Structure to design on (312 residues):
């Protein structure tokens, strides 16, 4: 039976880190960081520097500053990914509201009509569930949004191009999954991807968006779903495992990079790569105990990841 976790003072937290082989040169600075940032979250990055996952000891020479540098790197990348995922989220909401409003009308009773969605018998329950969630979010979140309040007060209804603003990305992702095939195709064609792939992309983006919004650890996160193999995997010559599956870019942070390569404009994506590249360069300058290629691989990036810019 595992022992219960108990409160540890800052001195005890320092002692624990040192007992695991971490070098702490400025104890007062480390205490201040632990107090403000939370020991639990900072120690969540320790696996990057461990001799092995089961060993529990830091690589010889690992410093607290290096551990904190990875924490800061993850935060910066999280902020970068978040703002670019928000661009995709806004684009998708605009596209879906346009496609549905054009075909089915702009009153809630029109665009939320159950007949507007897939008639697949296997998805009947899902259709009802998604529509119920949409009604609930529009009712609850709409009261806190000036635009929805404006339409309700002045017109007595909320058009879809307004109501999508108060829907979560998760709900919008589910909404795409219950659209009729012709609507799914109209949207997926804009991104030049197939219907199924786009559905997987939206599910993964929604998952990572929530991680970013709640400041969860990003670098080693893995999603349950994996994206299909793409030309980016092939042309970057990403290594495969013994099962002939790519080891990067399937259900990890680099898979999000591949998704955004296809869903952002050229300029937007180039900015994303430059921003993340800058943070990687900063991290490389702060971490001496690990070479850059090992750092990249541990955050699921192939060594030549920036070459994705040259693949069209």
């Amino acid at each position: 039976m595992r022992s219960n976790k108990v409160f540890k003072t800052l001195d005890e937290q320092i002692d624990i880190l040192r007992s695991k082989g971490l070098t702490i040169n400025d104890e007062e600075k480390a205490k201040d960081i632990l107090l403000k940032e939370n020991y639990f979250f900072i120690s969540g990055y320790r696996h990057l520097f461990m001799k092995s996952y089961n060993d529990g000891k830091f690589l010889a020479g690992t410093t607290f500053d290096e551990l904190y540098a990875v924490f800061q790197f993850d935060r910066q990348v999280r902020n970068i990914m978040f703002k670019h995922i928000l661009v995709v989220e806004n684009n998708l909401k605009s596209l879906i509201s346009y496609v549905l409003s054009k075909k089915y009308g702009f009153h809630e009773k029109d665009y939320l009509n159950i007949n507007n969605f897939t008639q697949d018998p296997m998805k009947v329950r899902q259709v009802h569930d998604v529509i119920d969630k949409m009604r609930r979010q529009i009712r609850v979140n709409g009261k806190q949004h000036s635009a929805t309040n404006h339409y309700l007060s002045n017109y007595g209804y909320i058009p879809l191009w307004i109501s999508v603003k108060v829907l979560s990305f998760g709900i919008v992702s589910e909404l795409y999954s219950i659209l009729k095939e012709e609507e799914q195709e109209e949207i997926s064609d804009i991104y030049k991807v197939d219907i199924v792939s786009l559905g997987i992309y939206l599910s993964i983006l929604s998952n990572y968006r929530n991680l970013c919004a709640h400041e969860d650890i990003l670098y080693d996160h893995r999603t349950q779903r994996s994206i299909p193999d793409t030309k980016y995997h092939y042309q970057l010559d990403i290594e495969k495992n013994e099962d002939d599956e790519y080891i990067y870019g399937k259900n990890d942070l680099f898979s999000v990079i591949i998704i955004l390569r296809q869903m952002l404009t050229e300029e937007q994506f180039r900015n994303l790569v430059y921003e993340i590249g800058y943070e990687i360069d900063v991290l490389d300058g702060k971490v001496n105990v690990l070479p850059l290629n090992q750092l990249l691989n541990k955050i699921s990036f192939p060594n030549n990841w920036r070459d994705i810019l040259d693949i069209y």
Notes: The longest helix spans residues 64-104. DSSP finds 15 helices and no strands in the chain.
